[in-house]
Specification:
The protein has 267 residues and is mainly α. The chain is built from 11 helices and 3 strands.
């Protein structure tokens, strides 16, 4: 259950870079609007340089929704889970902006959010360093998740009727399909969706928010670990969702308790 020249996006439609790749058009509105529609000079003004930083490969897809900052934040989170942003390495907003076809401003804003979440740390005049996390931190996250989620799930197992659990069957099966793709970022999103739907049955929005944040942090690869989890590992993890759901539908609380204990121990 477990990155050229700096890109810039304007409001008058897509632009193309040196390689002819379409740039994402920036939609006006809110804090994510590009200021003035011209190149963002903030990186230079703030003394942020690439220092010979090698360009990153293009992402699988350029961002497309209206909120540029939100798009970039989602893309950065995906890159973290997929191991494309490696622990201990420093990334500048201008270079990441080129990668995503946007200016440095929304990238910097998204990175500031990731800094608040503990995924990166600010390196003055350079950019952001991906935090190196060790096995102890992952174990602590798993312990806290178990302390929060397990009692709730066991209580729900006693109180939620079988037909309500059955409605989560498509969500559980979606995790198996996502795991079969072999893409850790795709599976991570589906995995969080399943946990979110289960915990939502408790009717506590704060619980869902806190547990979701812990779950996302637990999915970032630690330093020294393989960049991604293998397909077989993802599939085995996903099948724990369907097995748990089967036990919940059958009302077998002993099996539910054993499956939950095994899952969090493995995590």
């Amino acid at each position: 259950m477990k990155q050229g020249a700096q890109g810039s996006a304007g409001t008058d439609g897509p632009r193309t870079g040196a390689a002819g790749r379409a740039r994402v058009p920036v939609q006006p509105g809110a804090a994510d609007r590009e200021r003035g529609g011209g190149p963002d000079r903030a990186g230079t003004a703030r003394g942020e340089h690439t220092h010979g930083e090698r360009p990153l490969d293009a992402p699988r897809a350029l961002v497309q929704r209206s909120s540029v900052r939100g798009q970039v934040l989602d893309a950065l989170r995906t890159a973290l889970v997929a191991g494309e942003l490696r622990p201990g390495e420093v990334y500048s907003a201008p270079v990441l902006g080129e990668r995503f076809g946007v200016s440095a401003t929304p990238v910097r804003e998204a990175m500031q959010q990731l800094a608040l979440e503990g995924a990166v740390e600010v390196v003055p005049n350079r950019g952001f360093r991906v935090v190196e996390r060790d096995a102890r931190e992952l174990a602590e996250l798993a312990e806290v998740r178990a302390l929060i989620e397990v009692p709730v799930l066991l209580r729900l197992a006693r109180t939620v009727p079988a037909e309500r659990w059955a409605r989560l069957r498509p969500v559980a099966e979606a995790t198996v399909r996502a795991a079969s793709s072999g893409c850790p970022a795709t599976y991570a999103e589906s995995d969080r969706a399943f946990h979110r739907e289960v915990l939502a049955l408790a009717g506590n929005d704060q619980l869902v928010r806190v547990a979701g944040d812990l779950h996302r942090r637990a999915q970032w690869p630690p330093a020294g670990a393989p960049a991604t989890r293998g397909r077989a590992d993802l599939i085995a993890d996903a099948h724990e969702h369907t097995a748990l759901l089967d036990a919940l539908i059958a009302g077998d609380q002993d099996v539910v308790r054993a499956l939950v204990a095994d899952h969090y121990a493995a995590t």
